Amino acid sequence: EIRGTSVDPMEELKKMILPTAQFPSSSNSDQEDTDEDQKPKRPQSQADILQDLIIETSTIELWHDQDHEPYITSSGEAARGTFRLGSGEAKRLIRRLWHQHFPKKALNGEALNTTFEWLDAQAQFSGKKYTTAIRLAGDRERVYVDLGDESWKVVEITASGWSLKSAFEIPFRFYRSGGMLALPVPQSGGGLTDLQQFLNIHDESTWALAAGWLLGCYLPSGPFPGLIVRGPQGSAKSTMCRFLRALVDPNKAPLRSPPSSEQDLAIAANSSWLLGYDNLSSMKHSLADCLCTLSTGGGFATRKLYTNLEETIVSFCRPWMVNGIDNLSNRMDLLDRSIIIDLKPINENSRMTAAVMEELFEQQSPRILGAIYTALASVLKNLPQTELPQHPRMADFCQWVTAGEDHLKLKEDTFFNYYVGNRYEVIDDESENDSVVQFILIQLEQRNPWEGSASELLNSMTDYREKNGSLRKDWPRNVQGLTGRLRRIQPMLDRLHISIEHSRTKSQRTLTIIKTETPRQRKGAQEAELQNVSMLEDDMSWLERVGNE
Question: 18, 72, 112, 173: most buried by Cβ count inside 10 Å?
Answer without folding.
Answer: 72
